[in-house]
Amino acid sequence: ADADTFVAEQVQLGTMMRADDLPATANRLHHWVAGHPDLVRTDALRDAVGFLTDPPLPTLTRFGYGRLFAAAVATIPPRLRTITGVGVSPIRVRTGVALVGLLRWSLGPSPSWWAALERVGAPVPTDVEFLRPPPIDGFVDAVGRIGRE
Question: Is residue 8 part of a domain?
Answer without folding.
Answer: no
